[in-house]
Specification:
It comes from Paenibacillus agaridevorans. Keywords: DNA-binding, Transcription, Transcription regulation. With 329 residues, the chain is an alpha/beta fold. It has 3 domains: 44 residues, 434 Repressor (Amino-terminal Domain) (Orthogonal Bundle); 122 residues, Response regulator (Rossmann fold, 3-Layer(aba) Sandwich), CATH 3.40.50.2300; 133 residues, Response regulator (Rossmann fold, 3-Layer(aba) Sandwich). Helices cover 41% and strands 16% of the residues. The strands form 2 sheets. A 6-stranded parallel beta sheet has the order 2-1-3-4-5-11, with helices on both faces. A 6-stranded mixed beta sheet has the order 7-6-8-9-10-12, sandwiched between helices. The radius of gyration is 25 Å and the shape is elongated. It binds a DNA duplex (20 and 20 nucleotides) through helix 2 and helix 4.
Length: 329
Amino acid sequence: MVTIKDIAKRAGVSFSTVSKALLGNPNIKAVTKERIWEIAREMGYQPNIAARSLVSRKSGAIGIIWPTVERGALSSLITKLNDELERRGYTTLLSISRTDAAIESFNRYRMDAVLLFGDHSGNRDELSGIGSMQSPLLVYGAAGSHPFSTVDVNRGQAIRLAVRHLAELGHSRIAYLGRPDGDDPMQTVKIEAFLDEARTLGLRVDDESILRIEGLETHDGYIAAEAMFGWPSPPTAVISGGVDLTRGIYRAARERGLRVPEDLSVVSYDNIPLMEDLDVPTTAVGVSVHAIASVIAEALHKLIEMSDEQLTIALEPEIVVRSSSTRLQ
DNA sequence: GTGCCTAAGAGTTTCAGATC
DNA sequence: GATCTGAAACTCTTAGGCAC
């Protein structure tokens, strides 16, 4: 392996001069810098990250504890987030282990900061190891349900936008496909907002307004929609808790020969480009993944630079109207 | 054999000082 | 003042020496 000492020997300068030249220090003559860069290129020099982090006390790596790799919206977000962090000079390490196991690994690898997805924040069992966290921690989602720095979307407001949009189109029998049970505060806040906004607008709210599901994946959406279509008087519009659930709804509708939006208007949470490419270009509420990724990356950078800082950042959602929602026939 | 302590080593950055 | 050098420092692991 080529080190700065090898380059120094070849260039006939000290290794501290090589270090400064490669870092662009203005106290090194331009011609010396050029010569050192040329030799470094010739010798195939690659900086030793371990040694560099020894001095800087920074690894340049950010650990992300991710809930699952199976959900479309999350894949979209992780891709954008990785781009944003790379642009700021960080390497991303992703863990889909239990939170406590992930924290242990990230401590070992000396992450500069760790991002935790709010899905985990209600699970006290998994959070038992969080006290041993040696890096700044940022939680995405579930603001108010934990004491850590947070970036969160105003999910309740997003669902309110969806309810208002459908009400304006004349729908009064609207269902929400979400998960009322369990310990995920990010889902609970959406359901509470749905019920509150529906009551405020004088819409019909009953036991069938919330479609109970086991998880947030396509299959869960399919099973719930199947049950809904079997009711004697199914709703004319549905708000879905996420893109994968929406896929499940479309599959169930297709199998029954139902059309979206003619027979059922659909509005989905998750403001991601993928919504444009579903069976029906889908009306979506939320914050764009690009904006979320950019804000998270900036917040992580801030936490690394000022580790004592406590951040709470709320993002306001928008509605993007597409052809999956229409006026009640 | 076990336990404890100390020194060395890894590659890089950065500060203080030397040279021109 | 510009440019460069030398040495210390960073953290952790491993090896060697010593006492029991």
